[in-house]
Every structure is written in C-alpha cells, then in structure tokens.
Design goal:
By secondary structure, the protein is of the alpha/beta class. It has seven helices and 13 strands.
C-alpha cells in the first residue's frame, strides 16, 4: 500500500491498526506519469524497496537533480526543468529507529484520532509538505514542538517542500524548523527526496532505518517487507 500527501491518513491508519508496513512514495499518475529521467529514478527506488533482492539492507542513492516546476497535465509536452540536488545532513554519528510520519498537514488533520500511531522515543520522524505559506509551516512545526514530538524522536527527515512560499523572507522550511527547535538538539536530514517534488524515493512507514550523519547516508534495515 503506497502513496503520499493525503494518503498519509490511510498509510498511518492501516499501519497503526494492523502493524502492516505501508509505503510513503509515488502515486500512479503524478509519480509514474512524469517524463524521463526523473521517472526513471522514481521507479528504480520503488522497485528496489518494494521488491528487494534477498534480505540485504538498502541505502538510498541521492538523485543528481530534482524539480518542483509546475506544468498543467493537459499542456505538459516536455520534461520539467531540473536543478542540482543537495541533501543536507545536520548532525553527527549514527541514528537508528522506526521510520514514521508522512505529509505533516495530513498528520495534523488526524491528530488525536484512533488512526495515528503514537510517535515514540527513538523514532525517526518523516515530514514534508507542499504549497504552504511560511506562517502555516511554522504553525505546524510548533504544533509538533508543543506536543513533545521533537523531545522524543532520534532524528528528523525533512522532505523537500514543493513551491514553498517564504513571503519574500528568504527563509526555507529547514530555517523555520531550526527556529522552532530553538536550540533543541535533534539531528536533521533536510531536503530529502521523499515529497511532492520529483523524483520520489519510496520509504517504508514502520520500517527500521539508520542515518549515518558522517557518511551522509540513509539506510533501510532489512527486512522491511513481509516475507
């Protein structure tokens, strides 16, 4: 069971109620309907994570380029313009834990319901969003801070924010997050390609992951799918 954005509610609800690992990753049309070469990167990761060869760990390969250019489906006749990719690792050493989260705006909408898993001490929190104004992003980050989430998690994976509206401030989501953390020591991987942007890397909700901040790698620990 795989999807992103609003599908977060289903992915988290199913995982919480059944223990079944679900996957935060590409949707059929928006993910696999993209032009090459971005769709090739999206599909390669999808295949490697959903149909792993054996029981080996899997280390994500960071895409060389990415895009959040918007082109209407009915008029798109070319690949979207890309820019060089850079994923930032802010921390030291190795952190391991259960990967949990998804689209933050959707998580907020089901918070306190029977369909969201408890975020536990040591979890690695995955969050991303799209088309949000900086004030909304700050509000959602502060919501997590006030609920003690940042006091529990061992690390944060912050996905790229599609078409972020910084209101002319020059600030980015990672800047806002660091301001909300206000000195709280939480290692962060920012601008990870697990969001509404392209390409999309598939990530197992409920699977175990390891982040090596010195080597700048994110690795899934086998097994994360049913055998």
């Amino acid at each position: 069971i795989i999807g992103l954005s609003d599908a977060t509610a289903l992915l988290l609800g199913i995982y919480h109620k059944t223990g079944l690992v679900t996957f935060y990753g590409p949707a059929l049309a928006t993910g696999f309907g993209e032009f090459a070469p971005l769709v090739d990167v999206t599909y390669a990761c999808f295949k490697d994570v959903l149909a792993p060869q054996g029981h080996a760990d899997y280390t994500y390969i960071q895409p060389k380029e990415w895009t959040d250019e918007m082109i209407d489906w009915e008029s798109q006749v070319r690949p979207k313009r890309c820019q060089a990719n850079h994923v930032e690792f802010a921390g030291h050493g190795r952190v391991s834990g259960r990967l949990i989260g998804g689209n933050l705006n959707t998580m907020w909408s089901i918070w306190g319901s029977p369909y969201i898993p408890e975020i536990k001490t040591g979890d690695i929190l995955l969050i991303e969003d799209s088309f949000k104004h900086i004030s909304t992003v700050e509000r959602l980050f502060m919501f997590l801070r006030l609920n003690g989430i940042f006091d529990r998690v061992s690390a944060i994976v912050l996905g790229k924010h599609e078409q972020f509206d910084g209101a002319g401030s020059g600030r980015k989501p990672i800047t806002v997050l660091q301001e909300v953390l206000d000195g709280l020591s939480v290692p962060i991987v920012s601008d990870f390609d697990c969001a509404h942007t392209h390409p999309v890397l598939t990530m197992p909700i409920g699977g175990q992951a390891c982040i090596d901040f010195d080597a700048e790698t994110v690795t899934l620990k086998a097994p994360w799918t049913a055998t």
